[in-house]
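Hi all, posting the design record for the shared folder.

TITLE: backbone redesign
STEP: 1 of 1
STRUCTURE INPUT:
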């Protein structure tokens, strides 16, 4: 049995998605916008226009302008000259959109990944300790509600004494 060749539109959409998905978060360069769940959709029209849809991690996120510029550059590098980036605010982004691979990348980078909001009461009331990404201990304490960026809190591990960022649950 011979399979049919993929349609050109599907091939263009897959190529466009692959190009857009290579863009990294400028604040956490080990994560792509696909890992974060910020990349929502990629469509290539018959006219050749590529429309990339993104959702900010929170309204007013200063990294969004950099992401948009990086998306335009990645798409041009992939051969797409007619590109539009659309930002959608609804539904609002949540840390539940972070991929499992993204959570591992955060941990490997030294940032504690967020708890899953949809499966944890602690997300509603805050979590006083998170597992240390350095040694794995849950004997940690929050030092400051704000870490290196607004979306992270600063923690310290009581077991290994290392400070670390915790990616806040949103």
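Okay, here is what came back for every position:
SEQUENCE:
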């Amino acid at each position: 049995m011979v399979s049919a060749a993929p349609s050109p539109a599907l091939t263009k959409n897959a190529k466009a998605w692959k190009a857009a998905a290579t863009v990294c978060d400028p604040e956490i360069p080990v994560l792509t916008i696909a890992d974060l769940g910020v990349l929502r959709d990629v469509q290539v029209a018959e006219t050749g226009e590529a429309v990339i849809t993104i959702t900010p991690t929170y309204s007013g996120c200063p990294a969004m302008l950099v992401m948009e510029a990086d998306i335009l550059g990645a798409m041009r590098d992939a051969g797409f000259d007619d590109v539009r980036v659309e930002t959608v605010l609804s539904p609002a982004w949540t840390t539940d959109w972070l991929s499992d691979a993204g959570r591992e990348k955060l941990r490997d980078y030294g940032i504690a990944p967020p708890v899953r909001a949809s499966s944890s009461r602690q997300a509603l009331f805050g979590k006083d300790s998170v597992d240390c990404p350095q040694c794995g201990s849950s004997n940690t304490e929050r030092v400051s509600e704000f870490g290196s960026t607004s979306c992270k809190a600063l923690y310290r591990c009581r077991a290994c004494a290392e400070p670390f960022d915790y990616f806040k649950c949103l």
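COMMENT: Residues 65 and 119 are 32 Å apart (CA to CA).
Let me know if anyone wants the other runs.
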